[in-house]
Amino acid sequence: MSVRIDDLDRKILRQLQRDGGQSLDEIARAVGSSKTPVWNRIRKLREAGVIRRQTYLLDAEALGFEACFFVLIRTSEHDADWQQAFLKALKDRPEVQEAHRLAGDIDYILKVRVAGARAYDSFYQALISEVRVYNVTALLSMEEIKSTTDLPL
Description:
The protein is α+β, with helices and mostly antiparallel strands and 153 residues long. It has five helices and four strands. The protein has helices spanning 7-18, 24-31, 35-47, 80-91, 117-130, and strands at residues 67-74, 96-101, 108-114, 135-140.
């Protein structure tokens, strides 16, 4: 579904990206509008699927998830049954924050958050026990330089 987004919608979306916990009054004040039109636009954007959900961003390290691994996966399997099993294995694992199918030499890349190396190994062992993969390379992020969920509106 395509929806027209005007400047006021973009301002509202920027505010929601910045902090989804703001009150309607705060958002309306920040975008130079009143509460009712802001609420109507937010409702319209939700119904159109522009706003998928409201959530909170948690500090992974503060909660003990100090290791972030980027996992590069190559597979020699490309049939529908393998893909279905692989997708199920990923969806069943809360450690997987992101998963992308790629073009090029690497088939998939995963962003995996765990407490440390032992937790990563447990994740790895569980994954390869469920699905066959040709090659797995894990890269440990030494430092998160930039992380955002904000789109450049």
